[in-house]
Design goal:
2 domains; mainly alpha; single chain; 341 residues
Amino acid sequence: MIRDSKILNTIKDILPGFIVAIIIALISMGLSKFAPSLGAGTIAIFLGMLVGNLFLGQKVFQSGYKFSETNLLSYSIVLLGGTLSITKLMQLGFNGIFFIIIQMSVTIVGAMYIGKKLGFSQNFRMLMASGNAVCGSSAIAATAPVIDASDDDKGIAITVVNITGIFLMFLLPVICGYLYNHEVVKTSAMIGGTLQSVGQVVASGEMVNEHVKELATIFKIVRIIFLVVVVFVLGYIKKKNNNEILKEEVSDVKNGKIKIPWYVIGFFITCALFTFNIITPEVSSLFKIISNKLEIIALGAIGLRVNLRQLIKQGKSMSLYALFIGILQVATAVVLISILL
């Protein structure tokens, strides 16, 4: 009885924002028929930003927006795996994985160094490093307890990392058009190897084309796989003189307390099922349609959650920190792509 009551309360919390996100997606799909070059996903983001900041940014909608962004996007990614074969994943190759490892390493070292020069605390620098290098809010949430970061540091880091990602989400398709004429592998590497959250990668890739969106998502998923390594390394740096705490961290990794997100595992399972023809082409086509619709709702929710007032309120030093990290990530990606891809 108590459990049923909790479920009903959760549904009531989610429903208002969820309905708004669906309406935004439906309108965007309709508008995309008149602007096919933009695509429904891109329209959903901009329309969501407009509606969320001018009309429907109230607290009552936020749970539904968050559910639509995180959960629906996760389901979309799992279904996307059922439309891709292992041979598609192999497009990354050794050079693609090497690109990701170096890109992440430079981002972590750069975020720590830049933050130190700007006078930020070690904990905050570590949160910024993990958030920018791996997967935004999820990486920050996984890193915070390991380094004993405060809720304030965690909240500000999540805000700044997301703001950086939002700017890059719109900027990278333009840069890739100029540098690579939207060549699939190089554009996917730039977007999937640089952007902070999965949603931003999907949205930015969608602004280019379907092939870039798919391959960029694969680049991003490989980055997320390294989350456990990044969290452990940052914990080691923070507490390297405390052997007892370090042993606890090793135990946490072994016992799976620091986990790879479930949707990454789901993606590889459905991908394997499709590769071995267990998922038939007909089912795969259905997966693609459902995945696309869930994705558009999620992208609308991303737009609805963008708080333009927070963008304006960030202080000068914080803005410089985000700017320098963004420039470092893009510049490093450009150099590595020219060498490796």
